[in-house]
Each structure stands twice: as C-alpha cells, then as structure tokens.
Amino acid sequence: MTHSLTRREALAAGFGAVLLPATLSAQPAQRPSELKIGITTFLSGPASVFGVPSRKAAEMLIEEINQKGGIGGIPVRPLFVDEAPGTDHLVGEFRRLVQSEGVQVMFAAISSGSCLACTPLSGELRKVTVLWDCGTQRIFEEGQQPFAFRTQGYGTPEVLAPLLYLLRHKPDFRTMAVINQDYAWGRDSWEIWKTAMDALKPGVRVVAEMFPRFGSSDFSTEITRLLALRPDVIYSTHWGGELVTIVRQAAERRLFERSLFVLPVAEASMQLLGRTMPAGHIIGTRGDHWNNHPKPRDPAALQRFVDGYRAKFNEYPIYPCHHMAQALSALQAAYAKAIEAKGGGWPSDQELANAFRGLTFPTPTSTITLREDGQGLEDQVVGLSSHSERFPFAVPDQMILYPAAQVSTPAGQKSVDWLKTLQPAMVQQVGQPLSAA
Amino acid sequence: MAGWFEENGLLLGLALLDGLASAGLIFLVAVGLNLVFGVLRIINVAHGSLYAIGAYAAASLGMFLAARGLPDWAALPALLAAAVLVGILLGPPIERLLLRRIYLQEQVVQLLVTFALFMILEDVQKLVWGVQPVHHDTALKLLGTVDVPFGADVIPFTAYQLFLLPGIAVLTLVGLAWFLRRTLMGRIIVAVTSDREAASAMGIDAARVFLLTFSFGAGLAALGGALSSPTAALVPGIGAQTIVLSFAVVATAGLGQIEGAALTSLMMGLGRSIAVYFEPELEVVVPYIIMVAVLLVRPQGLFGVTETRRV
C-alpha cells in the first residue's frame, strides 16, 4: 500500500528536516553512556601513510583516556571512516555518524577537500567538528564556522616558516624551482610560497614550475631537468611515498649536491628514508612536534608518547599522530571547561562549541590556543636535516622556532593578501633559534 | 624551427633518454594486458594489481636476500624471480577459479568481476605489506650512475634506467615476437586468438592456452612492477595508476597488438618526458592526447584490424 503526502504534510516534513537538528541541539543534554567520536582519516590509498598511523595513535590514546576513567567520567569510543572513497561518500558517512550513530563529536579530516566538504555540515547539523589535520587556509578565511575548530596550524604558517628559515640560512639564493603534486595542496602551497617570497625577497628567478601527477611513482625526467637547470633552491611539498621516491632518485643522481632542498612536509617520510636523506637540507613537520624537540614544554609527556607509540607499533610517531594527540587533548580540555561551566552537568553541542572557542590546551611540546575564529595557533619548528646516533633517520638540527602568532594570517584576513604585505625585515625579526636544554 | 633545435637540442636529447626508460616500463605492463586481451578477450582490470604485487614481491625478496647476507648482485635476478613467482602463484588460480567462469558472459560482467578482483587484491596488498611506503633499491645502486655530457656540464643518469629498463623491454619485445611466430606454442596461441572454435575443432586445448597466456601476462605485469621497485617507493594505489596508462596504450595500439604496444609505449614515454621539459602542465594529459588523436583517425588503434562481427 502506498500513501502520497499531502502538500501540508510535505511542508511539515520539510520544515521538520530543517528545524530538527537545531531543536535537538537546544534540548538539555543528557550524560551519555559512552562518548562516541566519529574520526575521518585515510585508511586506504596513498594518504593512508598518514591515516593509518593517526588511527593507531587515536586508538592508543583513547585506550589511555579510558583507563583513566574517560572524559568527564564517560568512556570514549572512536568510530573511524575512510576518506579515500571521496567527498561524496564522506559527506554521507558524516551525516550517518551524526544522525544515526549519535556521535557527540566529529574529527575531520586529513584531506583539505574532505575538510571543505565536512565543515559546512558541522554548522548545518550543529555538531562540534575538530579539524584535526587538514591544512587549507580557506576554512576560516572564507566564512565563519560556529561549530568547527582546528587544533593545529595550517598551510600558511607551515609554508612561511620554512621560507623564513631559507632566507636566513641561504639569503643569497637567486634561482629556484618547484616540484609539487598536481592537486590542491601542491598548488596552494606554491601560491603561498611564491607570494611570500615575492614580498620578502623580490627578484628570485623561478626556473621551473613542475606539478607531476598526484601519485606519480617516477620523477626521473623532472630530476634530469632540475640537474640541467641547477637552481639554487628546490622547493617541494611532496609527502609520503612520492617524497620518498623523489629523495631517493635525487640522492642517487647527486641532485642534493647541486641544489638546496626545502621540504616543509618531510618529517613523515624521514623514517622511511633512513640514512638516504642527505644532511644539510631544510625540513619541516607541519608544527613544532619533532620527536627530538630540544625544549619541549613537557619533556616527560613527549617521551612517554614517543616511547609508548614505539613500544606498541615498532615505529616512531609521525606528525599526523601528534596532530591526533592534539585533537584529543583539545577535546579533553573543552569538555572539562564546558562541564565546569555547567556546574558538573553534561554540555550540549552548543555549550561544547562555546568551550572550544578561545580554548587553550597543552601538547607535549607547547601550548595551543584556538583563536576566536576557531583556528589553532601552533608554533612551527624548522631545521636542517642531520644524522646522529640517537635516531636511525634524519632529524632536524640548527632548529628555529617560529611563534604561531607571527607566521599565521591574522584573523579576518586572507592569506594571499596578508603575505603580500610582509616586509623583508621580518626574516631577522621572527624566529628564535632552539638549542638543546 | 632550426633555431629552436639549436637552442633546445641538448634538452631534447635528455628528454629522449628519460623517455626510453619510461617507455620500457609502460611497455612491459601494457604488453601483458594486450596479450591477455588478445587471447582471452577479457579486459583485466586486476592487471594493475599484479603489477603492484610484482613490485612488492620484488622488494620483499630483495630485502629477504639482503637479510640472509647474499651478495648485492643477487638483487638483480631477484627481480625476475619475483615476477615469475607472481605469475606462477597468482596466474593459474585467477584464471581457473575466476576468469574461466566468465568467458561467455557479457563484457560488463567481465569488467565488474575483474574490478572486484582488483579491489580484493588492493586490500590483500595492504594486509601483507601495510600502508607505509616500501622500497629496496639495491639493484639501482648496484649499477651506479653514468655521467652524460650536457654542454660543459654532465648529467648523472642511473645505469639501471638508462640501459637496463630499455634493454629488458627490447628483449621482451623481440622474445615475444619470436615466441609467437617461431615456436609451436606461440603459433597455437595465435591460432586460438584468431579463431578459438576452429582451433579447438582441430584438437587444440584452448583451456590450456588460456591458462598459460594469462599466467604469462600476469608475469609480465609483475615484471613491470618488479623492475619499477628499485626506483620507486611502493604505496597503496600504485596498481590503479598503472592500469589506467596501460589501458591507454592498449587502446591506442590496437587490442592484441604486440608491436603496436611497443610503439605506443615509446610515443607515450617520449611524449611525457618531452612535455616535462617544454610544457610541464601537459605531462599528465600527453598519453591521452595521443590516444584520442590516434583513435579519431584509426578507431581500431594504430595496429588494430577491423573485424567482421560474427553472428
């Protein structure tokens, strides 16, 4: 038997669909039996080199949280979703987790495309969404996000800090080349670099702009061209297996002897490269969380996290693991703040979002504050690749810490506009050399 | 024009050297796909997975031999051994258990089944080798580098990519052409390719030919992967990227054409490397521009023959 809706019923259903999330969110929150977190990450495809370690970190840390009684006395349960099938699939999964599974908080995502797709949903469904790893500057520069908060830095400071380091380390370079992946991050990170470089050191000649296909497994031709061009500096924001391939092929063909490499996302590939990564090139980690950070805020906490991860998974944690730890630290701090504000009661979605705004939370290496727009201020630490007895792979030496507030676009401004206003004096004014404690 | 060559002749020379190595790898994978289609008339989407598994197997075997203290030169035969192992271990079960059941099915069913196999094998790779990049480059380092003169400068190339990859591709092409035209088994394969029913009526065991051909094709895919492993970091997803380019080669060459696959691989390899030097934005699309250009003029492919539809 079928029943067709009358116009009035259809209208009622439509209004219901629009108003229900807001109405539910306004209800007094009841303390749940478990705190479900929906976590989107790459569990397949090339970016699973970030996604799987971050899932391992999440599972390890949530186990530790639960052993200590959970968050606000509630045990935490993660529900993981694979980002690899694409944004259409991810948006459906986001809705399912919020509307069917009843997750209290969403963690999204590694890919900037995933974050751009999920962030509008956080507002529509009025569900707190922690942007735990993606780097696109567009999220908070193109609109207000009432329920989304990023618990780490983002593309602009992550590219600007290595550029400032280069300008201090090798100020006389005249030519450069770029080899980035042909997708949003590769193009955006070049635009950020080029805009800032034109402001801080005008007149540098870009001799090659190469954007090989995302997922390429051979860069021989690009390397031959770079060998022939001999640029002073080669900039690349490649990551994962592609960065490993570039470094190996370039090292074998002595390209590192001809040009200085700047690799802002290098940290996650250093273990895989072992001693193959040549010394003396500029490397970054999308933050300050190097496993050999010489002056961490809490050395014992950093050591505990690194040792715990190594003992469990037989590898060092890479930056997405640290970003996951930051997101969970922020979540604990936000719930503590919201519960306290409510006199011990369980916060609603709106109350939790209120707690996130302006939140300050600890990480093993520093303290991160979420700005009023929701963007986290995470310091950047950049250094020169070096080898020692302590690690079987390259770690940074001669590190410089760039305070987040000085290398991040001020709230309310757009990155490209702000970068154009930078003055060359900034190179010497910003950044504090880090020496061992 | 002469002025352009005078100015860019040296760069063009470098691009040609790069293109040869790239063409060699493309050919090894595409020729296996083409051979399988020519005989079995199945477009095997899982061919890319066999490439990936060949690469992973070669890296694992190389690491195993190194851990056992075997000399470095053992890394070179290990590449071939890994490809043979994959062909023998995976080819027969896939053909017997899966493909044999769908030879008479619609092409869309065949595509779906091999696509499902591709997805399963992708997960198998992750289960066995994990998601972190795997690499073993002893074979690459073993052969060292060769300094190619470039004006007053020199450009270091790896001997592995300059000589070994194009050399193996040429050997494969010549060997395959000789095998198909000069040996009894090769002629049987050609007979089954031309007319399976007539060949069966004359006493040829077509099922056995299918089994051997598929296993050989799987071995060629694995060989392509194994030879790429010393130069590349292996990550989940490499099979998918390979299969797309292989399809472009097969469609451009003409289905079932060995020499066509060689020429097309050369065109695409050279086209991509020349693009990197002179118009990098086009590098990704060059193979497909070549494919579209060829198919517009010759819908059956460069070397394909128009067949009368049997009813």
Radius of gyration of chain A: 23 Å
- Judging by the overall fold, what is the CATH architecture of the largest domain in chain A? 3-Layer(aba) Sandwich
Rg from alpha-carbon coordinates of chain B:
20 Å
Beta-strand content estimate of chain A = 15-25%
CATH class of the largest domain in chain A: Alpha Beta
Q: Would you report the number of β strands of chain B?
A: 2
In the predicted model, the low-confidence regions of chain B spanning at least 5 consecutive residues are: none
Strand order of the largest sheet of chain B: 1-2
Q: Determine the oligomeric state from the structure.
A: heterodimer
The largest sheet of chain B is: 2 strands, antiparallel
Shape of chain B: globular
Low-confidence stretches of chain A: 1-5, 13-26
Mean pLDDT across all amino acids of chain A = 92
Count of alpha/pi helices of chain B? 12
Reported by name, the CATH topology of the largest domain in chain A is Rossmann fold
Structure description:
The complex is a heterodimer of chains A (437) and B (311). Chain A has 17 helices and 16 strands. Chain A is α/β, with parallel strands linked by helices and 437 residues long. Chain A has two domains: 31-153 and 299-370, Rossmann fold; 156-285 and 379-433, Response regulator (Rossmann fold, 3-Layer(aba) Sandwich), CATH 3.40.50.2300. Chain A is globular and about 65 Å long. With 311 residues, chain B is mostly helical. Chain B has one domain (14-241). Chain B has a two-stranded antiparallel sheet. In chain B, a hairpin with a 2-residue loop joins strand 1 and strand 2 (153-158). Chain B is globular and about 65 Å long. Chain B starts with a helix and ends in a 14-residue tail after the last helix. Classes of the chains: A alpha/beta (437), B mainly alpha (311).
